[in-house]
Amino acid sequence: MDKYIYFAASMPTLRWGAEQQYMTEKDFLEEAEKLMSETDFQHIKNTLVNDYEPKEIKGVYSDFLTFENRLRTELAEYRKATKEGFEYKFSLLPAQLLKDANPLEIELKLIKFRWDWLEEREFSHYSDLDFFVLYYLKLQLLKRMNSFKQEIGEKAFEELIKVNIENTEEASE
């Protein structure tokens, strides 16, 4: 357990919206593999922010999966109701989160909504397994949020075009 306290204390604090340096997911997992038990490391490694199917596990990740499933279900029901011209009454999301915004703004607001949910669960988790689960989920949210930056998007787009051109040239030969 002393290794967990050391690991938790050595990680930079993650703050929403702050220009900051933080470890990459890869760096986090490399450190986790060195300092955590194999069982705990595998649990962390399988903690994915894009997963939303409830699983038979304990702890905050199980709660997150339930939350994410509810969030996605509510978004789907809202979009269906909107498409069919019906009014929708939200139970989880604040209604203003989805109103009067473009898709990018909505996605950023949804990422922030998830971030806030994670932060609410941090109390009393300072170096236990749930602390690392929450931290890893937040790292994944920051990575997603940063992927929307124009220069990063342009670089990814240029790389995609380059790969497609190379594949087209190879196919025509």
Task: Describe the protein's architecture and organization.
- The relative contact order is 0.13.
- 64% of the residues lie in helices and 0% in strands.
- The mean pLDDT is 89.
- The protein has one domain (2-172).
- With 173 residues, it is mostly helical.
Summary keywords:
173 residues, mainly alpha, 64% helix
Our measurement of the CA-to-CA distance between the termini, rounded to an integer number of angstroms, reads 59 Å
Rg, rounded, reads 19 Å
Q: Return the domain count.
A: 1
| Protein structure class | mainly alpha
Average pLDDT, to the nearest integer? Answer: 89
Number of H- or I-type helical stretches? 7
Shape: globular
Secondary-structure element series:
HHHHHHH
| Portion in helices | 55-70%
Could you outline the blueprint of secondary structure elements for this entry?
Elements: H1 2-10, H2 25-35, H3 38-45, H4 60-83, H5 103-120, H6 129-146, H7 150-172
In short:
This protein has 173 residues and is mostly helical. Helix content is 64%, strand content 0%.
